Amino acid sequence: MKKIFLLSLVSLISLGTFAQNAVWKTEGVDIIPDFTMKDINGNSHTLYQYTSTGKHVIIDFSATWCGPCWSFHSSHVLEHYYTKYGSNGNLSQDGNVIFYEVDKTTNNLTTSSYGDWTAGVSYTMCDDNVSSNPVSKFMTSGGTYGIPKVVVVCNNNTYWSVSTSNTDETVLRNYIESKCGLAPLSASSINDLGFEYDIYPNPTSNIINIDIKADQAENVQYSLNNYVGQTVSTNQSSIHTGLNKLSINTQALASGMYYLTLQVGNRKNVIKVVVNH
User: Fold this and answer.
1) Parallel, antiparallel, or unpaired for β 95-101 and 56-62?
2) What is the pTM of this model?
3) Degrees (nearest 5) of the Cα angle 104, 106, 112?
4) Helix-helix angle 77-85:169-180, to 10 degrees
């Protein structure tokens, strides 16, 4: 595994010392300061713009010449995760994924010796050779570090390291939930084949409102399960074309995370909701 140096060779010679391994901030405790990354299309992405809205952010610090980086990238675990939990996720929308190429001497993600790093990727790709390397924000002192270095920044701006041996998005999701806890979801409506729905408020205290805009009359089933899979509420209803308003009373439920299964006809989505009294 090739090492990245945060200290320049000139600096090392002038100091008359040898580079030491980087000292990382304490996981789950130290706050990561805000920073901005620029993607390959010239758009800026600021860490706190995501975490301030309750989202967690996975960052893959890699280099285009790095074989282990390519192997992890080629597992597509981050693409699968983003598809389920990213800005247009089909399960929830409380996460984001960013790839950051750490070597400033490289400037093209599409023509590396391993292949095109952007192929089949819908999440943010950064190869910014101008700004300071944001990996330094995760350290208390610089030095050498191995790549790939993958981290998740929780919505409270602490971080945890992510093992690159994990190539299953479900396992990754369970790990992130165990470390980051519960994060509020986007309240914006989500489109699904033939109908549109909105779940609010989320987090909630006494009631979950479900607005469904259907293109035809349908039968609806909706149930609420707790974290261990026990059904705590189940309902069914008939809806008509247009806007329909349903609700679930959560006043008697314990605070915590629940999964709302919403089935309209033969189409089904699962949405994470938080009850907080």
Assistant:
1) parallel
2) 0.65
3) 150
4) 60
